[in-house]
Every structure is written in C-alpha cells, then in structure tokens.
Amino acid sequence: MMARNRKRTSSKIASIASGVLSDNASSKIAKSLAASALLQVDKSKQTGGKLEDLPSKVLNSPKYNNKTKILAGSVLSQSNKKR
C-alpha cells in the first residue's frame, strides 16, 4: 500500500496557481507546477513520480521567478517521501 501524503495546497497557493494558468506569458514549466498544485487542493492527491524532480530543479535555478518557485516548493512538499 502506498503511503498517503496528508498535505494539501492552501487557498493562497491555489490562487497563485490559477493566476499562472490564466497568464499566457507563463512558461510551460510554471503551468505544469500550477496544474499539479491545483490538483492537490484535494487531500487524496499527491505529486506524481514524474513531476518530483522538476520542483527541485526550479528551486535551484536562478532563471525562474518567485511565483514559479513558490509553486515548486508547494509541489515538492507534497511529494511522496518514500520514492
């Protein structure tokens, strides 16, 4: 049985994610992180294995803006620690 992550996206992060998704200037990476964060508003969802490496790369890169890094931190914090 896979361990469940009980964390969920806050309303503040969900608002940022919604703004990123509706902004045509947002990068594909930012939109991917935003979509993942919004999916995790529901407690039963957690970051998928394929998306777990992306947030750490974003957080360690100077080229991403603050909103993208906030979303990356949220998505990373909701990943499965056992993977």
Secondary structure topology:
Elements lengths: L10 H12 L5 H12 L13 H7 L6 H12 L6
Report the end-to-end length measured between terminal Cα atoms: 13 Å
Helix-strand sequence? HHHH
Query: Structural class from helices and strands?
Result: mainly alpha
Biggest pleated sheet: none
Tally of DSSP helical segments: 4
Helix content: 40-55%
Unreliable stretches, pLDDT < 50, 5 or more residues? none
Shape: globular
Q: Over all CA atoms, what is the radius of gyration?
A: 12 Å
**Percentage beta strand:** under 5%
Q: What is the count of β-strands?
A: 0
The overall pLDDT, averaged over residues, is: 85
Protein model, in words:
By secondary structure, the protein is an all-alpha fold. Helices cover 52% and strands 0% of the residues.
Short structural description:
The chain has helices spanning 11-22, 28-39, 53-59, 66-77.
Could you list some keywords that capture this structure?
83 residues, mainly alpha, 4 helices, 52% helix, 0% strand, globular
